[in-house]
Write a structure and sequence with these properties.
With 515 residues, the chain is mostly helical. Helix content is 74%, strand content 2%.
């Protein structure tokens, strides 16, 4: 039987829905750091901490959303609920920016808005990614290209967001930030409306059955679950262990190098504790076979290395935003490009280069030369390291306050884009292929959990961005200037690339012919 040509229409509905959600997220992200520093007058270290906590929690809550969808709501209801919740969160940020002169009220509205964005994303993010694979039969060879098309939707939204939200919000006048947040709110509402209107018609499996509905729970299934006391015990154990680790991390990390208590980072401690506890709880489930445990183990190992990739990559919304705003010559003729526009460079490059990389993998695959998924991801980490090495040489020996050519930041984004194309879409497809069906949304949540830890770590690292000639120490590494700061990411991502490459053969054996 010949495989079907083209892709189901449901894929393009998911593409559009994800596009508007990413428009909302990246539109807000393009302005968020600048809003805190320029309108609310936060210092850069505090702004970096808030940014890291927000982006970390955004990728932590998919664990909860994935669990609720798998067990109770289904993907569809979770997506609509998450989208509407995020729209309300963006509207509260709009109100915060309307009252930025009243700092107390503005901060209260901002944190309430961030809370709703975090909660809504938890319901939205893992469920829409999972639905892509469910549009196809298990042996359908179109899945990898489907995830690549879906990832293009992510980047179309990421491209439009900084251009539109940056144009109306990043004007140099603090009172205009509100319009950027309002545009992000409208984008999220559009995504929710499109999905809700067309989901019953197009979100179906190859046999025409609806995908993503609430799981059917018969009376016998319910009674069987109620007779499992171990489920409650495991839940209590998980919560207790998470709380203990959170407290231990908070007490330990709340001290400075000279022993002075500087205040506990409860959000960071919770994220890192969950990163440890949740994977253990899942992989020790008694229903898993040894093969399934081995494949989940591959997801965990790759997710660990992904932390190093995204913590360096996500400087785009943190320290690299400061660099674009303060030390990059953005003049083109008589026009000065908004700093937020740089955040469109990466998605534009992804949309342009994705077909090229797909052709490269196809060319290599036909000749038996295509690297395995773990090796592709190690290549991605290496390219990330090279991107920071490139810009490190561009800023070496320059004086504070001196602006450099846009070519340096543009080159960094180009190299990082090639690294992302080796890592991100491959990872989504790998998680879907390796996950047992009954844990698919939950394991997608674990995948995003690694991104949660990475984003929190990114905020921590961004706090070491040099300013006013102040020397800072990061994990024993002395940061005195921009060159030192960028070389930190060169060493970190380069070391991760080498280790993952060396492990790739073992990981391929653990996958047992999935690819």
């Amino acid at each position: 039987m010949n495989p079907p040509k083209g892709h189901p229409k449901g894929l393009y509905l998911l593409f559009v829905t994800e596009m508007w959600e990413r428009f909302s997220y990246y539109g807000m992200r393009a302005l968020f750091m600048l809003y805190m520093v320029q309108a609310l007058l936060f210092d850069k270290e505090l702004a970096s901490q808030v940014y890291g906590s927000y982006t970390g929690l955004v990728y932590l809550t998919p664990l909860i959303g994935g669990y609720i969808a798998d067990r109770y709501w289904g993907n569809r209801r979770s997506i609509v609920t998450g989208a509407l919740t995020m729209a309300v969160g963006q509207f509260l940020l709009f109100l915060s920016a309307c009252y930025y002169h009243e700092v107390g009220l503005a901060k209260y509205l901002m944190f309430c808005g961030l809370g709703l964005l975090i909660l809504g994303n938890g319901f939205f993010k893992p469920n829409i990614s999972t639905m892509v694979g469910r549009l196809y039969r298990p042996d359908d060879s179109r899945k990898d290209s489907a995830f690549t098309i879906f990832y293009m939707g992510v980047n179309v939204g990421s491209t439009l967001a900084p251009l539109i939200c940056g144009l109306i919000g990043n004007t140099g006048h603090p009172e205009d930030f509100k319009w950027g947040f309002l545009a992000a709110c409208i984008g999220m509402l559009l995504g929710a409306a499109v999905f809700r209107i067309f989901m019953n018609r197009y979100i179906c499996d190859p046999d025409g059955n609806p995908v993503g509905t609430a799981p059917a729970r018969s009376k016998e299934t319910t009674e069987k679950d109620e007779k499992k006391p171990s489920n409650t015990g495991r839940t209590v154990l998980m919560v207790a262990f998470t709380l203990i680790l959170t407290i231990l991390f908070s007490v330990n990390w709340g001290h400075t190098s000279d022993g002075v208590f500087a205040g506990a980072d409860w959000i960071g401690s919770l994220i890192y504790a969950t990163v440890i506890v949740m994977p253990i709880i899942i992989i020790t489930d008694k229903s898993l076979t040894r093969t399934e445990q081995a494949r989940i183990g591959v997801i965990y190992i790759i997710a660990f290395f992904v932390i190093f990739f995204w913590s360096a990559y996500e400087q785009a919304g943190a320290s690299l935003t400061f660099f674009a705003d303060e030390q990059t010559d953005r003049r083109i003729g008589n026009w000065e490009m908004p700093a937020a526009y740089f955040q469109s460079f990466n998605p534009i490059m992804i949309v342009t280069l994705a077909p090229v990389f797909a052709a490269i993998w196809s060319f290599l695959g036909k000749r038996g030369w295509e690297p395995s998924s773990p090796r592709k991801q190690s290549i991605g980490l290496l390219l990330l390291s090279l991107g920071y090495l490139y810009i490190a040489f561009g800023v070496k020996d320059i004086e504070p306050g001196v602006k450099v050519s846009m070519a340096w930041l543009t080159g960094l984004y180009l190299i990082h884009t090639m690294g992302e194309l080796c890592l991100a879409p491959i990872g989504l497809s790998l998680v879907y292929k390796l996950s047992p069906a009954r844990f698919s949304s939950l394991l997608m949540g674990v995948w995003y959990l690694s991104t949660s830890a990475a984003n929190k770590f990114a905020g921590f690292l961004s706090g070491f961005y040099p300013e006013h000639g102040v020397s800072k120490s990061c994990l024993g590494y002395q940061v005195e200037n921009l060159y030192d700061f960028f070389m930190l990411f060169v060493f970190m991502s380069g070391a991760a690339a080498v280790i993952l490459f060396l492990l790739s053969g073992k990981l391929q054996k653990m996958m047992k012919g999935i690819e």
